[in-house]
Design brief:
Elements lengths: L9 E2 L12 E3 L1 E2 L2 E5 L7 H5 L9 E7 L2 E6 L9 E5 L9 H19 L11 E2 L6 E2 L6 E2 L4 E10 L2 E7 L10 E4 L6 H13 L3 E12 L4 E10 L15 E8 L12 H10 L3 H4 L2
Parallel strand pairs: 2-6, 11-15
Antiparallel strand pairs: 1-5, 3-4, 4-7, 5-6, 8-9, 9-10, 11-12, 11-13, 12-16, 14-15
The structure holds zinc ion.
């Protein structure tokens, strides 16, 4: 999956290290990120070639082996080589470990960007020098990176799995029922609620399968299998922007794997296809 970058090793522990010329520099602008000819993430040196960037204006984020990622809130102008493009380009980046490191870096850079002022008292915030945190110098509130949990559910009815298709975005592959966990819910509550809301089914024997960090929505996705309980007739939710366009039962034999295996969704669908024990027994 996307986060499986071995033999490279991901290091997310905080460090106060300073940037060097060949370190990677993440410059985010909303959901866009600065890229080199649309191909690679720029280095500190490449950005310094077009604008001034003092060492204290770059903040350490993470490392993959000896490749260090920093971000800055300096406004970097576009040039012939440097331009802003959708962060989603990193999902398919080659090599994959740079796509993963770049997107988690973008997630952190976005979090810093969204917390430039204290949400409680409006004072300009500061970066902690001891840990990955943002501190308000006036009221003392400390902000830590926030992760939004999501559940993805593979609903099974004997030898069939329920595949869905959403109307949102440009993503046209099949998917599984999914949604954010709401305040006050357990993961299992969220599974039952999302399934009922999206496809009008009751489920039982909810079982955890695996998880995936998903930087593009600052999420941690938890994948579950669940068996349909009672009538398997699908009633699609057709309200709202995230309405489902399709919800179909597909048998193991007819199931075609549409994805290279980057996403948890398709890893779970593959597990069903290959009769992984978690997909077949409750
Ligand atoms: Zn404050």
């Amino acid at each position: 999956m996307f986060q499986d970058i071995g033999p490279y090793v991901f290091h997310n522990e905080y460090s106060s290290r300073k940037p060097e010329e060949d370190d990677i520099l993440i410059v985010q602008k909303g959901r866009d990120i600065l890229m080199n000819c649309g191909q690679t993430l720029p280095t500190v040196a490449q950005v310094r070639a077009v604008c001034s960037l003092a060492a204290e204006q770059a903040y350490y984020l993470l490392s993959i082996d000896e490749k260090h990622f920093f971000c800055t809130d300096v406004q970097v102008p576009e040039t012939e080589n440097l331009s802003y493009t959708s962060v989603m380009i990193l999902r398919e980046m080659n090599p994959g470990y740079m796509g993963f490191g770049g997107s988690v870096s973008w997630q952190l850079a976005s979090w810093y960007d969204l917390h430039r002022y204290c949400g409680r008292c409006g004072t300009k915030t500061e970066h902690s020098e001891r840990e990955r945190a943002i501190i308000c110098p006036k009221c003392g509130h400390t902000y830590y990176p926030r992760i939004s949990p999501v559940v993805i559910i593979a609903i099974v009815d004997g030898d069939r799995i329920l595949l869905t298709r959403y109307n949102r975005g440009g993503y046209r592959r099949h998917s599984l029922v999914a949604g954010f966990v709401e305040i006050g819910e357990t993961l299992e509550d969220a599974v039952r609620r999302e399934v009922m809301e999206e496809v009008g089914l009751h489920v039982k024997d909810i079982r955890y399968c695996e998880s995936q960090p998903w930087p593009f929505s600052s999420s941690l996705i938890a994948g579950f299998f669940a068996d349909v309980d009672g009538d398997p007739t699908v009633h699609l939710n057709t309200d709202g922007q995230d309405e489902l366009a399709e919800g179909v039962w597909v048998s193991r034999d007819e199931l075609v794997l549409e994805d290279s295996g980057m996403s948890l969704t398709w890893d779970m669908i593959r597990k069903f296809k290959e009769k992984h024990p978690i997909s077949t027994i409750a």
